[in-house]
Amino acid sequence: MDFVRAIQKDLVEVQDLPDFGAGDTIAVTYKIKEGSKERLQKFQGVVIQRRGQGTTETFTIRKMSGTVGVERIIPVASPFIEKIEVIRKGRVRRARIFYQRARTGKSARIKEKMSFKK
User: Fold this and answer.
1) Under DSSP, is residue 105 helix (H, G, I), strand (E, B) or coil?
2) Half-sphere exposure of 89 (CA within 13 A, CB side)
3) What's the CATH fold of domain 2-95?
4) Domain boundaries along the sequence of the chain
């Protein structure tokens, strides 16, 4: 098993990403290829979960598009990720907040984690 991880470490380079977790609102800018053209697209939403480790780590983002919830699972080691911005740090008690799927309106809000920087 360690042999496989060693090869993955050599072949796949993991980007240096900001520190984020479940409940945080982030904006992911990633490259989309359409035929021979390439463009950047932003996906902003709340992180539902982070799972895995190393090169197989993924995170799930959820946003509301009108009245429809849209989720996207993004691998951390994806070469298509241009950048990740942390918009808000959320205060949640769980590592996986799947209960957000059933919530709408005021009950779907996540409190912001206050940080005091000097």
Assistant:
1) helix
2) 7
3) SH3 type barrels. (2.30.30)
4) 2-95
In whole angstroms, give the CA distance from residue 49 to residue 90. 13
Confidence check: pLDDT of 14 > 70: no
Per-residue pLDDT tens for 19-74? 999 999 999 999 999 999 999 999 999 999 999 987 889 999 999 998 899 999 99
Bridge partners of residue 29, in order along the sequence: 42, 83
* Cα distance between residue 27 and residue 86, in whole Å: 7
Closest C-alpha among 86, 84, 85, 93 to residue 111? 93
Which residue in 101, 106, 98, 110 sits closest to 25, CA to CA? Answer: 110
Q: Take residue 53 and report the two structure tokens written for it.
A: 């480790």
- Burial class of residue 63, CB neighbours in 10 A (0-12, 13-18, 19+): middle
| Cα distance between residue 43 and residue 17, in whole Å | 16
3-state SS of 9-56?
Answer: HHHCCCCCCCCCCCCCEEEEEEEEEECCEEEEEEEEEEEEEEECCHHH
